[in-house]
Here is the input.
Amino acid sequence: MTANALRKHELDGNKLAKHLRRQVGQAIADYQMIEDGDRIMVCLSGGKDSYTLLSLLRQLQARAPVQFELVAVHLDQKQPDYDATILPDYLRSIGVPFQIIEQDTYSVVKRVVPEGKTMCSLCSRLRRGALYHHAEQGGFTKIALGHHRDDMVETLFLNMFYQSTLKTMPPKLLSDDGKHVVIRPLAYCKEADIAAYSQQQGFPIMPCNLCGSQETLQRKAIKRMLHDWEGQHPGRVENVFRALTSVAPSQLADRNLFDFAALGRRSAQRLSPFDWLLSDADPETVVENAAV
Here is the structure.
């Protein structure tokens, strides 16, 4: 690489880092993800997303007006051909404190999931349980995950198409037991930008050998759909994500989220009964029964 080409590469890398850092900072500010005195468990899988998350949080930590601690935590799931030296060597080289959890989820998943079926769901639940337990034992106040904007949009459509629910991965989440605050600082970042940054930084990527990095057919279909949309209509995925931040409950149809029954009601008394709307019986019979 010539001197000019090297300089351009460095400038492009700095520009991308600044862009991602700004997006992460904005997400942290918008959702109040980090407070003074936080002890943050950065979940490091060895993939591009979690490496990028750790890198950007460290950059922001260096200039933050508040004090917070970052600890990289990795779960060794005892997968075949797993190289236990890669992550420790890398983290020591950059001076990041880290902890390794060892739990044989591989054997559990292989025993429980039938051959040919996707293992991601069970593997994810076991991994989450192990990380939550470690966070509680280690006194961590926040758990940082590397999910990005594209993950959130994909999950939205997965839930819509296959679960009939309008929900996704939120940027900030309280666990069901109320013990853990989960944050996703990469919520505003595009996967393509993260991939480019990871390549520029030369992170030692560790592939998932548990299942060959398999994805469910449903998620693959959603990825293809979004990729096609973005190709035909650039900016559409970003618009979908922005829609998640601008929800109008009165313009949807969830009766638990918005009191449609009270809308325009002229009496304080709720109308009842409604049997005449739902029954196939003779209208006069329904009226007579209601009057009894």
The radius of gyration is 24 Å.
